[in-house]
């Protein structure tokens, strides 16, 4: 009888199967444990992903310390140590693993880790701290109240305050924490909501853009959204805001709270679908939010036509600008060069498979040299601020910081504002990072705070 050989690895493009999160088997702890053991055995035999996040070194250390030196010698109770280290960046799936579908071993490490987090959440084993930190809208709204805002922002830089929140919430005292604006972006730009406007279509773009402001862009760094609008309007693009929005759901997904992700979908998708139907494209400054609508929700709701309609019309900002440039509609009247720029391409942008669009746009600025770092920064939203993970996050960030240090650029940063802040922290240069959109605004010579306007903070 002929035996079909098992291929060592697949050279085909990876195929992502929908996430079967609404089935009983998905949340069955016994079925989960069996699948974790199967996948861990494959990873142990390969070890190609050892230089990515801490999930893989943690797994391999457990195996190497086992009496059998195999996965069967690792206690099932220790599997959670591996799961806790995974922050679902998807890089192992998209760039490293040779056994992803269509390979017969059908290995999807990030989706398995998400399944394990979902089981943990359903069993009530998720820490209160993690539940609180993942409620970004609620935290941002509370921190935006003027009196509370002053206290929160003072606590960020006060040694005694940091010690208190370290003890109360398990936040590492050395971690960098974002400031909160007392004037959220959607509050100060509520007059920007438009229901009808003319735009010049070009290629796959309509020239009319709805800006999903994101929790971070609304509450923490509203100036990033202001930079995006300034850059887009400089190229005659029309920008509106959704009539309402909630967190995209990424922080809750990373916690395993998939019911909350569905609730976010139910709040956001009808609004965004209405904008798409009215001829608007959608962009967001945070790559994780774009990824949520472009890849995560379509995999969670594969039969949902509204979700797929939004997926087809949401873009990374630099992806959108480059599409306009290819049609001759991107302004290139740059007033100043940027010199040397080193920026980290965030993981959640890279796994969108759109290519190096940020580098291509910044390289249009005369006398500007752009170096891209395609390596994880280690921040993962809240991962880097937690006491038990901060040291690992800094370890992951060091190679990126070293690259920046060696290049001695005029500007450095990341497509993800949180990653940029984490890299600056690793360099001991907090606050000196520049987002690529801010650099583009600088190159155009657009006044940061035009007459009559006021800073976001």
UniProtKB/TrEMBL annotation:
The keyword 4Fe-4S applies. Keywords: 4Fe-4S, Iron, Iron-sulfur, Metal-binding, Repeat. It holds the Pfam family CCG. It comes from the Bacteria. Transmembrane segments: none annotated. Signal peptide: none annotated. This is Fe-S oxidoreductase.
């Amino acid at each position: 009888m002929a035996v079909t050989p098992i291929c060592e690895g697949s050279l085909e493009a990876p195929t992502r199967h929908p996430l079967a999160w609404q089935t009983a088997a998905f949340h069955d702890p016994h079925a989960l444990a069996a699948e974790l053991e199967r996948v861990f055995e494959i990873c142990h035999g390969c070890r190609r992903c050892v230089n990515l996040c801490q999930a893989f070194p943690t797994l391999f250390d457990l195996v190497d310390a086992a009496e059998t030196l195999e996965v069967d010698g690792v206690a099932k109770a220790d599997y959670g140590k591996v799961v806790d280290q995974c922050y679902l960046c998807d890089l192992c799936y998209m760039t490293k693993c040779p056994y992803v579908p269509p390979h017969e071993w059908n290995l999807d490490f990030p989706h398995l880790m998400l399944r394990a987090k979902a089981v943990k959440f359903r069993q009530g084993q998720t820490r209160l701290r993690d539940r609180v930190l993942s409620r970004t809208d609620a935290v941002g709204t509370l921190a935006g109240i003027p009196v509370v805002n002053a206290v929160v922002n003072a606590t960020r830089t006060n040694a005694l305050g940091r010690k208190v929140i370290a003890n109360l919430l398990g936040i590492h005292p050395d971690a960098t924490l974002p400031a909160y604006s007392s004037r959220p972006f959607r509050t100060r730009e509520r007059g920007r909501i438009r229901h009808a406007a003319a735009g010049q279509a070009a290629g796959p773009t309509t020239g009319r853009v709805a800006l999903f402001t994101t929790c971070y862009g609304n509450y923490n760094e509203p100036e990033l959204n202001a930079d995006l609008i300034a850059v887009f309007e400089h190229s005659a693009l029309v920008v509106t805001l959704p009539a309402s929005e909630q967190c995209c759901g990424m922080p809750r997904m990373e916690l395993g709270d998939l019911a909350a992700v569905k609730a976010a979908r139910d709040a956001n998708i009808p609004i965004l679908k209405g904008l798409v139907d009215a001829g608007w494209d959608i962009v967001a400054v945070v790559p994780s939010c774009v990824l949520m609508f472009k890849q995560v929700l379509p995999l969670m709701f594969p039969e949902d036509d509204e979700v797929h309609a939004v997926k087809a019309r949401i873009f990374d900002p630099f992806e959108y600008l480059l599409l306009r440039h290819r049609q001759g509609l991107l302004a290139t009247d740059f007033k100043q060069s940027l010199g040397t720029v080193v920026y980290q391409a965030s993981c959640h942008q890279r796994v969108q498979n759109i290519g190096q669009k940020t580098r291509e746009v910044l390289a249009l600025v005369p006398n500007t040299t752009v170096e891209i770092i395609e390596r994880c920064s280690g921040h993962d939203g809240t991962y880097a601020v937690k006491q038990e993970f901060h040291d690992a996050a800094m370890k992951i960030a060091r190679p990126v910081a070293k690259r920046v240090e060696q290049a001695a650029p005029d500007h450095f940063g990341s497509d993800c504002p949180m990653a940029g802040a984490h890299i600056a922290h690793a360099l001991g240069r907090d606050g000196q990072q520049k987002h690529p959109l801010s650099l583009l605004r600088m190159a155009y010579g657009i006044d940061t705070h035009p007459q009559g306007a006021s800073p976001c903070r």
